[in-house]
């Protein structure tokens, strides 16, 4: 398998996991929290640099999400036989004002507004991988949402990503 395909597999794994309802922070869906962060800062998108553990706009509250996906990046790279030292770029961008697309006829207003997530992985030697996911979300609102019943991510002894 070519390095480009391996990087695309890594990007797809990160993208699928990041968009999942299992991606929680304080037992709430991280994407909703990201939309709230963007709105608070007057931004239309949020970007994560997984190699340097950075987030733009800056937020110490979301450091746990960055750390979790940095670990997942390392795990996926290892299972794809791509040395972490070869990865030059690992970014996740969530755009909350993407070009509009038609809502499916079964869409509900309560789903929120559209977002587009793009995961980019690039390695030394010009190989790159890209994955995208489109969906709907509202800004985080604890009064309207239920917390996840799963084990919180910050408990001691929690070992999975």
Report on the structure:
This protein has 161 residues and is α+β, with helices and mostly antiparallel strands. It has one domain (3-137). It has 3 helices and 7 strands, in the order H-E-E-H-E-E-H-E-E-E. It has helices spanning 3-19, 30-40, 63-79, and strands spanning 24-25, 28-29, 45-49, 54-56, 87-95, 113-123, 128-137. The strands form 2 sheets. The chain has a 5-stranded antiparallel β-sheet with strand order 4-3-5-6-7. A two-stranded antiparallel ribbon has the order 1-2. Strand 1 and strand 2 form a beta hairpin. Helix 1 runs antiparallel to helix 3 (63-79).
- Measured as a percent range, the helix fraction is 25-40%
Helices and strands: which structural class? alpha+beta
Specify the number of helices.
Answer: 3
Query: From the alpha-carbon coordinates, what is the Rg to the nearest angstrom?
Result: 16 Å
List the strand order in the largest sheet: 4-3-5-6-7
Number of strands: 7
Largest sheet: 5 strands, antiparallel
Terminal Cα span: 26 Å
Order of SSEs, N→C? Answer: HEEHEEHEEE
| Shape assignment | globular
Mean pLDDT across all residues, rounded?
82
Low-confidence stretches: 154-161
How much of the residues is beta strand, in percent?
A: 25-35%
Tally of domains: 1
